[in-house]
Specification:
Helix content: 25-40%
Number of strands: 4
Structural class: alpha+beta
Protein name: Amphi-Trp domain-containing protein
Strand content: 35-45%
InterPro entries: Amphi-Trp_dom (IPR027598)
Pfam families: Amphi-Trp
Mean pLDDT: 92
Order of helices and strands: HEEEE
Length: 72
């Protein structure tokens, strides 16, 4: 049972997507947490020192996808 699930899907330029990934990485490295804002409310999620990282690259004839998943 999920306590909370936040999903977001949007179209960005490659550079804008890189900025989002940089913000996530900087938050993990400097603050040991992730920050989300939805509907004017802030949410801070603490991240432990060790996490499981999964990277998946799928190349198909009509689409390519890269999935990055962190679990703890």
């Amino acid at each position: 049972m999920d306590i909370l699930e936040i999903k977001e899907k949007r179209t960005l330029s490659r550079e804008e997507a890189a900025k989002v990934l940089h913000r996530i990485a900087d938050s993990l490295e400097r603050h040991n947490e992730l920050q989300f804002t939805r509907e004017g409310k802030g949410l801070h999620v603490k991240v432990p020192d060790a996490v499981e990282l999964e990277v998946e690259l799928e190349i198909e004839s009509d689409e390519t996808s890269l999935e990055i998943e962190l679990n703890w």
